[in-house]
Amino acid sequence: MRYHRIPDETVRRLPVYLRGLIVSADQGREHISSQSLADFVGVDAWQIRKDLSYFGDFGTPGVGYNIERLARGIKKTLRLDTIRRAALVGVGDLGSALLSYPGFRMYGLDIVAAFDVDPKKVGKTVGGVEIEDPAQLGTLRQRDISLAIVAVPRAAAQATVDQLVAAGVRGILNFAPSKVTASKRVKVITLDIAMELARLPYYIPRVEQMSETTEDKG
Amino acid sequence: MRYHRIPDETVRRLPVYLRGLIVSADQGREHISSQSLADFVGVDAWQIRKDLSYFGDFGTPGVGYNIERLARGIKKTLRLDTIRRAALVGVGDLGSALLSYPGFRMYGLDIVAAFDVDPKKVGKTVGGVEIEDPAQLGTLRQRDISLAIVAVPRAAAQATVDQLVAAGVRGILNFAPSKVTASKRVKVITLDIAMELARLPYYIPRVEQMSETTEDKG
DNA sequence: CCATGTGAAGGTATTCACAGCC
DNA sequence: GGCTGTGAATACCTTCACATGG
């Protein structure tokens, strides 16, 4: 299967495996079987093996996967093998939280710039990053920043995305609750937090009667 | 198709349509075609029609959908037709941002309680909600709170979920980057923000060469 | 004997194309 | 004429079962 394109759903699960491997490595183990990893991350063992089969042979039959080697392989596939520099636009409550969030490190992601239209915020430092005026967005390209997080109000989202695209950004994570469009060269993932919560009640039957699934992919 | 179970992917898109309809209604229109809504929310028209066909006839051929009526129908299907009360556990940076986040309102979701283990935070008010000691979690059932948001560190996530389940919560949105398990009666959606950002570089080819998709389902 | 990797089968979701209704 | 609703076709993803390798 080495010559097959990787399914989107697999790309969605790979960071989960990576997280599991990193935590496992912390516990001093050297090898892990698809079954152990499966138990740890909450995905079926055959699913893990199939997912990994799309991009290389990492396992040894009878032994399992070398944790270090597999983690490197996944990072390379996800193109996370080099540090990725990201910018944040919109330093409100959510933006501030993201600037202080330590979780990006694990994936080699680093928020190195922040922007906000509010002149009172410009110049202040949040999470170790100094807030700049959005007029400076044009400098992203020369600062080698290819990713951006948009945490501005709905009404400003599309204009912000347009500026980021013009500044050479190649991937955008959008928290604004609205559709945003961008050139085909730029990948946009929209994450509407309220919408995720809104999806829960559907799975809560009014009458006592249950569906099967417990955890969800996203 | 009225007697068919609703696909999970459809459930994931329904809040998108609802958001689009609410914004459209603000603009004073009474009817909308699947094509107009499609353009507005960024989903194909036939996809919208197919999705809606799973749970009722809302449209009029030649005219389109009555916005008010369709919004009600979607709300009912998602069981968002009654106000849903939610609790937040973990009032750190992210938790505070969520308490102040106005976006939940649109879906009839209301965060009415907040908890944090830090005694210095207990008693303070954030986003109009007073922070309580987690020892009070047992009162959720009698306060008619069926949803919860978990925004605690990874290490505390599973214990928090266990407490919430014991307190009668039926749906949980987990922001901690870890697998959490719960009784089948409880629906858990895990949302790992760093993981979403980590998925972006994969779609950014090193060499100039492009894939087709631009926006993502989430 | 144990665990991987993968064809093949089965299931789910997307896309198409058009009949039917206003 | 315009727009919905939906069977049928297609594409995609998951699950199984087992041959293969250490």
Task: Explain the layout of strands and helices.
Two copies of one chain form a homodimer.
Chain A: H1 8-26, E1 31-32, H2 34-41, H3 45-53, E2 59-60, E3 64-66, H4 67-77, E4 84-89, H5 93-100, E5 109-115, E6 125-126, E7 129-132, E8 147-150, H6 154-166, E9 171-174, E10 187-190, H7 193-198
Parallel strand pairs in A: 4-5, 4-8, 5-7, 8-9, 9-10
Antiparallel strand pairs in A: 1-3, 2-3, 6-7
Chain A binds a DNA duplex (22 and 22 nucleotides) through helix 1, helix 3 and strand 2.
Main attributes of the structure:
7 helices, seven-stranded mixed β-sheet, DNA-binding, three-stranded antiparallel β-sheet, about 220 residues, alpha/beta, homodimer
Description:
Two copies of one chain form a homodimer. By secondary structure, chain A is α/β, with parallel strands linked by helices. In chain A, 34% of the residues lie in helices and 17% in strands. Chain A contains seven helices and ten strands. The first copy, chain A, has helices at residues 8-26, 34-41, 45-53, 67-77, 93-100, 154-166, 193-198, and strands spanning 31-32, 59-60, 64-66, 84-89, 109-115, 125-126, 129-132, 147-150, 171-174, 187-190. Chain A has a seven-stranded mixed β-sheet. A three-stranded antiparallel β-sheet of chain A has the order 1-3-2. In chain A, β2 and β3 (64-66) form a beta hairpin. In chain A, α1 runs antiparallel to α4 (67-77) and α2 crosses α3 (45-53). Chain A is globular and about 60 Å long. In chain A, 41% of the residues are buried. The model of chain A is unreliable at 208-213 (pLDDT under 50). The interface between A and B is large, with 70 and 70 residues. Chain A binds a DNA duplex (22 and 22 nucleotides) through residues 1, 7-10, 33-35, 44-47, 49-50, 52-53, 57-65.
